[in-house]
């Protein structure tokens, strides 16, 4: 079995408080029945509009949020059952790179302290070994070892994201969840960071879960893509298959917004009417039916099951 991570039936709801007594009046259904596998040294991407549950899925896999239901099988073990201490030990093997390198690095700490912290928490290395690791990691991410004496605020956005990546990778994790790692950066810097992530994946044999709304980047970096809508994966396929034969109407609409990605000659832009429905009050039936141009009666009442289309390609739609 070459899969490093298998997520099965993941669910995460957030209570919605309100009224004079601030009681729970409902739930934001952030993640519903999400399942996927990620093979070793490959990249699985989650795409979709903001608010569709991509980030919550990533955070829940790392147990930064507690899942309500589901299995998170990492390296053959279901870590959803792990207590605090086992999870703390596991954390060095599963790291996260966040969207905003401006918030994720403490401005009052020198770079060497920021990079030493995960090693002090998770390893028993000596100070000398830690210094060696810091120098090595800074150079791996394309920075000079001498930068360790400076503070995060002295660096540009791109350099800060390199530091965040160094911090995530310094404990030698197997899995890295990267949540929109370039979307806070200048466009000119984005491809450098993507290329760095791909180079590091190769050198360090990393497995990625990559979260993004940028389909060009996703096509470039992923082995397999899952398209999320209202907390659910509605279509999943190996990357080239997804871009060649998008089968769910939502995927077709997403791809049509990026004309360079459309297969064939027809470059019709599918405009999605309306907004993503409120995840605290999702529609009955198909979650996409309020915006789908093919919606039928059945779509308004019956949740479509996933249909296998080809090897590794499935989608959930009554048309299939
Ligand atoms: Fe559209 Fe119906 Fe398919 Fe949902 S199930 S995507 S509403 S056709
Ligand atoms: Mg997000």
Number of strands: 12
- Global mean pLDDT: 93
Instruction: Record the strand order, biggest sheet.
Output: 6-7-8-3-9-10-12-11
Bound molecules: iron/sulfur cluster, magnesium ion
Shape annotation: globular
Helix content: 25-40%
SSE pattern, N- to C-terminal:
EEEHEEHEHHHEHEHEEHHEE
Query: Count of DSSP helices?
Result: 9
Indicate the structural class.
Answer: alpha/beta
Biggest sheet details: 8 strands, mixed
Keywords: ATP-binding, Nucleotide-binding, Transport
GO molecular function: ATP binding; ATP hydrolysis activity
Protein name: Oligopeptide/dipeptide ABC transporter, ATPase subunit
Pfam families: ABC_tran, oligo_HPY
Helix-strand blueprint:
Layout: E1 3-18, E2 23-39, E3 43-47, H1 54-61, E4 69-74, E5 77-78, H2 84-90, E6 94-97, H3 111-122, H4 127-140, H5 157-169, E7 175-179, H6 187-204, E8 207-212, H7 215-221, E9 224-229, E10 232-238, H8 239-244, H9 249-256, E11 306-310, E12 313-316
Parallel strand pairs: 3-8, 3-9, 6-7, 7-8
Antiparallel strand pairs: 1-2, 1-4, 4-5, 9-10, 10-12, 11-12
This protein binds iron/sulfur cluster (SF4) and magnesium ion (MG).
Iron/sulfur cluster (SF4) binds at residues 248-249, 286, 288-289, 292, 294-296, 299, 304, 317-319.
Please describe the structure with a list of short key phrases separated by commas or semicolons.
Oligopeptide/dipeptide ABC transporter, ATPase subunit, 12 strands, ABC_transp_ATP-bind, ATP binding, nucleotide-binding, eight-stranded mixed sheet, Rossmann fold, binds magnesium ion, about 325 residues, ABC_transporter-like_ATP-bd, four-stranded antiparallel sheet
């Amino acid at each position: 079995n070459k899969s490093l991570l298998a997520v099965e039936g993941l669910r995460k709801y957030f209570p919605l408080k309100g009224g004079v007594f601030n009681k729970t009046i409902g739930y934001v259904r952030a993640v519903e029945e999400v399942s996927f596998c990620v093979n070793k040294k490959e990249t699985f991407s989650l795409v979709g509009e903001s608010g569709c549950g991509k980030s919550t899925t990533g955070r829940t896999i790392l147990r930064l949020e507690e899942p309500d239901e589901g299995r998170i099988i990492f390296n053959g073990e279901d870590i959803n059952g792990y207590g605090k201490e086992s999870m703390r030990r596991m954390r060095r093997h599963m790291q996260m790179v966040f969207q905003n390198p401006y918030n994720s690095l403490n401005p009052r700490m020198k770079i060497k302290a920021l990079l030493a912290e995960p090693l002090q928490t998770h390893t028993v290395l000596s100070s000398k070994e830690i210094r060696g690791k810091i120098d090595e990691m800074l150079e791996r991410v394309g920075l000079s070892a001498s930068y360790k004496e400076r503070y995060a605020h002295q660096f540009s956005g791109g350099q800060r994201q390199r530091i965040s990546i160094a911090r995530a990778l310094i404990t030698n994790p197997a899995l890295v969840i990267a949540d929109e790692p370039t979307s806070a950066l200048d466009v000119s810097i984005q491809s450098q960071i993507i290329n760095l992530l791909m180079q590091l994946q190769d050198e360090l044999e990393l497995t990625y879960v990559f979260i993004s709304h940028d389909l060009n980047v996703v096509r470039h970096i992923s082995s397999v893509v899952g398209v999320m809508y209202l907390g659910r994966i509605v279509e999943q396929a190996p990357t080239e298959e997804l871009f060649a034969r998008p089968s769910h109407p939502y995927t077709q609409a997403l791809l049509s917004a990026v004309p360079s990605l459309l297969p064939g000659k027809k470059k019709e832009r599918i405009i999605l009417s309306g907004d993503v429905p409120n995840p605290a009050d999702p529609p009955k039936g198909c979650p996409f039916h309020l915006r789908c141009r093919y919606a039928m009666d059945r779509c308004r009442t019956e949740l479509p099951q996933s249909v296998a289309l080809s090897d590794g390609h499935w989608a959930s739609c009554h048309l299939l």
